[in-house]
Amino acid sequence: MGWLQDETGLEKTAANHVALTPLSHFNRAAALFPDKIAIVDGARRFTYAEYHARASQLASALDRAGVASGDVVATILPNILAQAEAHWGVPATGAVLNTINTRLDVDTIAYIFGHGGAKIALVDSAFLGLAEAALERMEGKAPRIIEVADPASGIPASGRHTEYEDFIAHADPDFAWVMPQDEWESLALNYTSGTTGRPKGVVYSHRGAYLHTLGLSLDWGLNRDTVYLTIVPLFHCNNWVHTWAIPAVGGAVVCCRDITARAIYDAIADEGVTNFGGAPIVLNMIVNAKDEDRRDFGHIVNVYTAGAPPPAATLAAIEPLGFTVTQMYGLTETYGHVVECIWQEDWADLPDDERFARKARTGVAQVMEEHVTVMDGETMHEVPADGETIGEIMVRGNVVMKGYLKNPEATEEAFRGGYFHTGDIAFKHPDGYIKITDRAKDIIISGGENVSSVEVEGALMHHPAVSLCAVVAKPDDKWGEVPCAFVELKEGASASEDELIAFARERLAGFKTPKRIVFTELPKTSTGKIQKFELRKLVKEM
């Protein structure tokens, strides 16, 4: 050991230790690339100098309105300029950003306002009625509303509240940002979209977000030419931390208010979008786009997909259109994705079916996470990497939440045994790649056999008439539970229940084959996840 035992004079100082924060990325980018386009929102385009000045004006306006370090500022906004600016301007005052899902019900928003203690809420004019109704049902002090109008989208201001542009207009574009003194300080508050009980408030640190942005940039190969399209809602894990990452490389962000195939193709063709993230439903939207909504483009677009395992059939259909898709996995509690299906060069020579099956694996830990594995949730022993023994996905590392706000019991349970317990069921292939089979609550137990709803869905998705499907357990007197599939057909396509059951039986064991097919439009969250809890309600009513 020698001299290492005496570290006198080797302490942390202002010269050698600075709290990690994504705010540093933007300050650097504004200094290095002041004249480069940083963000596009419809017809509006702003350079890094202009974007930084506007974020500073927001911070200044919040400061003048009484927002101080540790306060919470909420937003109810789609992916528009003000939402991106809030990701910088709110923490630049030392405050905590609470982006709220625009599709939540009034009671849940009222609960989030009260539980999080928001002091100010930036609200899009389209959701003003929702926010105002939530204020009426609140207990405790209500936040002040700042209205964000979007006249270019046909959404004018109501006149009932101070409008966003007026709020920031006379504020200081040179406002001195409040940088964290401790990187463990809270940066953001995100509420889980739980299906039972009240949502839990997931707290992010500056440190975790900073490390995630660098890991993302490294894994995705982001650079100054990156043009990133905001399809993942900024209220969902803060856009998987992507919008905080782009200034680190000097790239550009393109806002996307309405997620449609036309909007995606237009952004790729007109703005040169190179990267975006989205749930498998977004991939499906692109694959099944109408001819009049498609645009030609001369480059490959890199896509991260997460939220549910993408069927191999969808991956096979989208790749020839000019998209390279990488599956990711993560949760609100992990700042978004932390597992990536990293491509292996020897997969390129595999037959198409096998190649796309490999790409549909969940993957391995990304560089910013210390360890991701599959364990027995009770013994905390890793399951063998045999391609069949299932367990719970466990995560440990620097990109795991600080914990649940005002809920130490839930935090302690989630971190039991030194790992974050995800509640997701998976197995490990011999090469270490994880493959999700289900959420714990989605496993179907039929005659004592475990049936993966994901596997059944993947089989049905190969049928040419199927656009989307979701499989849940249907109570059965003989088997206990049997698979029941809810199917959304492609526009103009047709298929019968018997036809799809026979199709599945050719690809699955008998006990895994769905015993009932229901044709319907599937209920979805704002991020494109299929709401299986709603389907379970329908099954009970059958």
From TrEMBL:
Residue ranges constituting the AMP-binding enzyme C-terminal domain according to the UniProt record: 455-529
UniProt keyword Lipid metabolism, yes or no: yes
UniProt keywords, alphabetically: Fatty acid metabolism, Ligase, Lipid metabolism
Signal peptide (UniProt feature, chain positions): none
Stored Gene3D superfamilies: 3.30.300.30, N-terminal domain of ligase-like (3.40.50.12780)
Residue ranges occupied by any AMP-dependent synthetase/ligase domain in the UniProt entry: 26-405
Alphabetical list of InterPro entries matching this protein: AMP-bd_C, AMP-bd_C_sf, AMP-binding_CS, AMP-dep_synth/lig_dom, ANL_N_sf
Pfam families in the record: AMP-binding (PF00501), AMP-binding_C (PF13193)
Family that this chain belongs to: Belongs to the ATP-dependent AMP-binding enzyme family.
NCBIfam families tied to this protein: PRK08162.1
Protein name: Acyl-CoA synthetase
Organism: Sinisalibacter aestuarii
